Amino acid sequence: MIDLVKLHVKAGDGGRGCVAWRHEKFYANGGPFGGDGGKGGDIWFAVDTNETTLMKLKFTRKIKAGNGMPGLIKKMHGKSGDDIIVPVPLGTMIRNAANGDLLADLTKPGQKVLIARGGKGGLGNMHFATSRNDAPEYAQPGEVGESLDVQVELRLLADAGLIGFPSVGKSTFLSVVTRANPQIAAYPFTTLEPNIGVVQMPNDRSFVLADMPGLIEGAGEGKGLGHEFLRHIKRCRVL
């Protein structure tokens, strides 16, 4: 189960403004006519209920949004860069890898959060004409898009979690009360990743039950599977 990845995200840069002049038959001194650059693309993370792990991000080192296009003549605006929407499972946490700050905690279906904002496009020379300088040969460069390293961590969301020593029947119990089919065998640590099932109750009620890998003494210090599964029990309402 892939539940922890690190990525570099880079939003798009804004396009530069255009230096251009109005050249038309009846406008001998048409003045500045350069358009603005397009905005750089943003990077969003969004909950996709079809995703269950971070497998699709495992071999992704960098995510980059599109840059804005430069401004055009005749005051035409440059095309904005394409946004990037990264689908992640429910229960995903996104942190700034540099300082550990929590940027987003995606715990609701359909939730979407902006992680890196694209740079603004530069202004064309039409914005800089004044009474003292009616022919500015200057336009703004586009702003640089935000760039940062993020740590993406998945913590399962469950109403109840089954914890206990290895080989005490957690997976067997889950297979009986739900339709889940976890691996069951008579040796320790058969379960190496959490399994989830839905328990159906009377009156159309149900709850989500998670089977956690075996807990042994010293797991908090990294023994056995250690923090590989301890992160998941933090989301359970009942253990």
Describe what this molecule looks like in 3D.
This protein has 239 residues and is mainly beta. Helices cover 6% and strands 25% of the residues. It has two helices and eleven strands. The strands form three sheets. A five-stranded mixed beta sheet has the order 3-1-8-5-6, with no helix packed on it. A three-stranded mixed beta sheet has the order 4-2-7, with no helix packed on it. A three-stranded mixed beta sheet has the order 9-11-10, covered by helices on one side. A hairpin with a 3-residue loop joins strand 10 and strand 11. The longest helix is centred in the C-terminal third of the chain and has 8 residues, at 170-177. It starts with a strand and ends in a 6-residue tail after the last helix. The model has no long low-confidence stretch (mean pLDDT 87).
Mean pLDDT rating: 87
Q: How many angstroms does the end-to-end distance come to?
A: 21 Å
Rg measurement, Å = 27 Å
Oligomer: single chain
Give the SSE string: EEEEEEEEEHEEH
How are the strands ordered across the major sheet? Answer: 3-1-8-5-6
What is the general shape?
Answer: elongated
- Low-pLDDT parts are none
Q: What brief labels describe this structure?
A:
239 residues; mainly beta; five-stranded mixed sheet; three-stranded mixed sheet; 6% helix
